[in-house]
Amino acid sequence: MSNRKYFGTDGIRGKVGEAPITPDFVLKLGWAAGKVLARHGSKKIIIGKDTRISGYMLESALEAGLAAAGLTAAFTGPMPTPAIAYLTRTFRAEAGIVISASHNPFDDNGIKFFSSEGTKLPDDVEEAIELEMEKPITCVESAQLGRASRIVDAAGRYIEFCKGTFPSELSLNGLKIVVDCANGATYHIAPNVLRELGATVIAIGVQPDGMNINKACGATDLELLQQRVLAEKADIGLAYDGDGDRIMMIDHLGEKVDGDQILYIIAREALRQGQLRGGVVGTLMSNMGLELALKQLGIPFTRAKVGDRYVLEKMQEKGWRLGAENSGHVILLDKTTTGDGIVASLQVLTAMVRNHMSLHDLCSGMKMLPQVLVNVRFAGEHDPLQSEAVKSVTADVEKVLAGRGRVLLRKSGTEPLIRVMVEGENEALVTELANRIADQVKAV
After folding, report:
1. DSSP 121
2. Which residue in 102, 286, 327, 345 is the catalytic one?
3. Coil/strand/helix, residue 255
């Protein structure tokens, strides 16, 4: 990882009102990004946001900074992150900016950038922006200042794009779908996509008030969706996160279907249709059950570091088209350039309709191994993962698992947590082993 000061694995993120998510910082960021990006040509930047109340403030600050650097901002209003990647490409814009903290609570926010190709900004561009941040802000001549505009039918354009990824000869007629939009950016998109393809849709989490995004709903909290799927006797439940780049599902029995299972279903269907090019990329957190199930199908599998940008890098390096994180970031490069919750859910629905199978049955070819994740908060500069005591207890646990499971310790990229993951065949044993390591991490 480079020594960037502000950019993390997923743009710049933090608590609203504390550095760096303050109006003055974001104004400067808009200006610095404008200076770097204006070197290209169209001078237009697409700006979208999720439904957080702080989006209004940050949008204005970005607009002012960009205008001072001579760039024009085109606003979409609340839109899923992948929609901004798509619109940036179709409008041939210089870049796209999303104001969102994804699945975090409403009082966090963040800024992430997409290149003109709809991919995350290359490291050298992020570094060039950080370099500009060190300089005092200047203003182009009045005649060169940027303007601001609204993209009138951003939602409609993206809805059509999503529908275009679903086979034209199929329809969702006869399917009852509960969709949970997390009171986030998909609230006015996902239900319409599904309805226009013929489904009966029950939409929840579609009343954003600026503060209820991801609150006890969406991809990070499935309880409400589970209850509703069972109560409505629905065929499937779909849960997006606040910015729409993640998808989790509930089958008709109320059971959770995560990113690993979704990836398995999509990969197997691609194989059946003769459309699978190469293999599949998961992460260090992907369930061993996925690896074993793909192996049975003869599909190559490799693991990337945790983070959708690393999954994407590995996919590009291998020339493969399918990758996902178990948290529900699913990247389908034959359809779009970035993780897209709606597009991924449509591919699973395609498999259901085409094979006349329930989601539950589609998952049955893959047996998930018990996987226990314990999060340990840590403060200060010391790294518990370097401690000899932690290394020694980890080695002991690996001996117990004897090659029929995995241990993974890693720092979270987005919060001050050490994630302790143990996977194996016996849930009680796995839980005990994970807690044994977590206790040692806490002690350090």
Report:
1. P
2. 102
3. coil
How far apart are the C-alpha atoms of 383 and 231, rounded to whole Å?
47
User: Does 2 qualify as catalytic in the annotation?
Assistant: no
Q: Which pLDDT belongs to residue 2?
A: 55
Of residues 250, 320, 243, the one with CA closest to residue 279: 320
Closest CA to 35 of 173, 129, 105: 129
Residue spans of beta strands (DSSP E) within 216-300: 236-240, 247-251, 256-257, 280-283
- d(CA 252, CA 328) in angstroms, rounded, equals 19
d(CA 252, CA 283): 28
pLDDT value of position 165: 98
Sheet with 371-377, side-by-side order of all strands: 371-377, 417-423, 406-411
Q: Is 319 exposed, middle or buried (0-12, 13-18, 19+ CB in 10 A)?
A: exposed
- The enclosing H or E element of 131 equals helix 123-133
pLDDT at 396: 95
**pLDDT means per 10 residues in the chain (444 residues)?**
77 95 98 90 93 98 97 97 97 96 96 93 92 96 96 97 98 98 98 98 98 97 98 98 97 98 98 96 95 96 93 96 97 96 98 98 95 88 86 95 89 85 94 95 88
Please spell the DSSP secondary structure of 68-112, one letter per residue.
HTT-EEEEEEE--HHHHHHHHHHTT-SEEEEE--TTS-TTEEEEE
What global pTM score does this model have?
0.92
Q: How many other CB atoms sit within 10 Å of the CB of residue 333?
A: 16
Residues 29 and 20: their CA atoms lie apart, in Å, by 10
The pLDDT value given to residue 252: 98
CA angle 46, 315, 269 (to 5 degrees): 100
Query: b/e per residue, 194-225, with b = 16+ CB within 10 A?
Result: bbbbebbbbbbbbebeeebbbbebbbbbbebb
Using the 8-state DSSP alphabet, how is residue 251 labeled? E
CB 358 within 8 A of CB 252: yes
CA distance 197 to 182: 22
> Can you state the angle between helices 81-90 and 154-163, rounded to 10 degrees?
100
Helices 23-37 and 123-133, axial angle in degrees (round to 10): 120
Report which of 85, 149, 148, 152 is spatially closest to residue 112, judged by C-alpha positions.
85
State the pLDDT at residue 1. 44
Say which DSSP state 384 is in: G
